[in-house]
Amino acid sequence: MQIVRAEEMYEWDRRAMDEYGREGYILMENAGRALAGRIREKFPKDEKFLVLIGGGNNGGDGYVIARILKDQGFGVTAVQVVPDEKIEGDALYHKNVYTKSGYDLAELTEQEWNRGTVVIDAMLGIGVRGPLRPPFDDLVRDVNLSGMHRVSIDIPSGLPADEGEEEFEAVKADTTFIVQAPKLSLFTEHTSGYYGEAEVVDIGLPPLSVTDPEREWQAEEDVKEGYPRLPASAHKGSRGKGLLIGGAQMMPGALVMAAKASIRAGAGLTTAATVPGNIPSAAGTLPEVMFMGTEEADGVISGIDTDSLTGKDGVAAGIGMGRKEPGRAVIETLLKETKVPLLIDADGLYHLRFLLDVLKEREEVTVVTPHVKEMADLTGESTGEVKRNPFSISSKFARDYGVYVVLKGPHTIITAPEGRQIVESSGNEGLAKGGSGDVLTGILLTMLMQHEHPLEALANGCFLHGKSAELLTAGERTVYDLLPTDVVEGLSSVFRTYIKE
Predict the structure, then answer these.
(1) What's the total number of domains in the chain?
(2) Residue 129 is labelled as binding a ligand
């Protein structure tokens, strides 16, 4: 599913009218009918609806929704919250249809606020930027304090559609019915919570009307259809020979979790490289994994035998490595000597920020998997800037250094070197524990070795990780007690549920 900026959505509408001959008032009718249909399905007929109608397309949709619900016997009070001169074009056409249907517009009184149970916010659309002006500043506050179930049409009024906006006041929706395609603000940390439960409603715009879309929201069906199946002739060599490097003396668990996740995700052969003192206990935990010792200084990895890189199909490094200076030489060696896909995570990202010139020269597939703070450190931006602009900052870093970026968060944004982006939204707050990222690293290493295209590999790996958490917390676990090791064991349920022959 395409993710669009406000200007791209406007362009989509324009092309639907100019190139496909769709009249604007017909598009608005289709949109309102589709939205009213979802409202009708979600709420029982005894609810009392208060529809707040603004200007522009959002207000026009509001008129259609109010009319359709009234036609079908729902209790609806419709209030136009802007002066008559603000209603024009297709919205004016549908206001006239509404009134000619015998329906009245009400005044917004305290009585209307008190007797409504659901407020439908059709006041402002995707073009809003910056602070609200009267009367919308007061109206938004009133909606949020109303005690009614708040339903926003396309976008909560006052919320920016795109990333980057810092100052705004918006409806805090319980439900948002998004028109045709999600907007960027659904996926940015400081704005996504305003949408509540978000659902995209197809209003019948012609497909592929946005030129060269760079952003997609991955759906379950995308994974089911695109996940590579195992041939009957598969053997351990064909399923990928991976190398994981990490685990300082005081942090052996990170490597253990990553290695276990890698083999559970389906790697054919996994080797874990760590300081020699970690190997006896780790090997006893993971009999399926091969181990090799590294050079060590002050309890951290200080060097890696480059011969160990030969014959591998993928390498992941940084988990539990520690931030002492000897680790930096290890990351530099891997950047220069590894000729297969290389994934750098955790402490490896700390060292990488001192090696960006080396990173830029690397020609093979490179993947970085930062969370917001790590992305800020890599780019020199503040964490606030990364939260507000995750799409553009990820894209710039990926293009500048020729790498794949997995920016982890509630909505993980995966970016290819040419700028194409996939958003993966699986998972829940149960993953907010130390070790979850290590598990993801192991899964992603396996995916990189088994998929033809790295971007799809990374998106599918994030799906497996997130869906495991979802399935577990829907059953025997909760978001409070879920452990990263549980997520590893839960992968089998994800494969059984979603990845079928």
Answers:
(1) 2
(2) yes
**Residues in CB range of 497: below 8 A, 6 or more apart:** 467, 471
- Range(s) of the domain holding residue 206: 6-213
Q: Is 55 annotated among the ligand-binding residues?
A: no
* 128 appears as a binding residue in the annotation: yes
Q: What is the pLDDT of residue 206?
A: 87
Instruction: Please report whether residue 1 resides in a domain.
Output: no
Distance CA 193, CA 277 (A): 46
| Residue 58, marked binder | yes
- The span from the CA of 88 to the CA of 203, in Å, is 21
Query: How much is the average pLDDT of 66-93?
Result: 97
**102 labelled ligand-binding:** no
Q: Mean pLDDT, to the nearest integer, of 63-69?
A: 98
Question: Is residue 33 annotated as involved in ligand binding?
Answer: no
Residues 242 and 177 in one domain: no
**254 assigned binding-site residue:** yes
Rounded CA-CA distance 413/409 in Å is: 8
pLDDT at 130 over 90: no
Give yes or no: residues 321 and 431 share one domain: yes
**Residue 407: strand, helix, or coil:** strand
- Cis before 326 (ω within 30): no
Instruction: Kindly report the pTM of this predicted structure.
Output: 0.96
Check whether 466 is labelled as a binding-site residue: no
**Rg of the chain taking only CA atoms, in angstroms:** 26
Q: Is the dihedral of CA 209, 213, 217, 221 positive or negative?
A: positive
Other beta carbons within 10 angstroms of residue 351's beta carbon come to 23
Domain end marker among 181, 213, 245? 213
pLDDT in tens, 364-395: 999 999 999 999 999 999 999 999 999 999 99
Contact 203, 29 (CB under 8 A): no
| 8 A C-beta contact, residue 463 and residue 223 | yes
HSE, CB side, 13 Å, CA atoms: give it for residue 39: 40
Distances (CA, A) of 320 to 138, 228, 247, 273: 51, 30, 4, 12
Task: Judge contact between 297 and 269, C-beta under 8 A.
Answer: no
**Residues 6+ away with beta carbon under 8 Å from 137:** 131, 169
∠72-74-76 over CA atoms, to 5°?
120
What is the rounded end-to-end Cα distance, in angstroms, of the chain?
24
Same domain, 422 and 300: yes
Does residue 210 have a pLDDT over 80? no
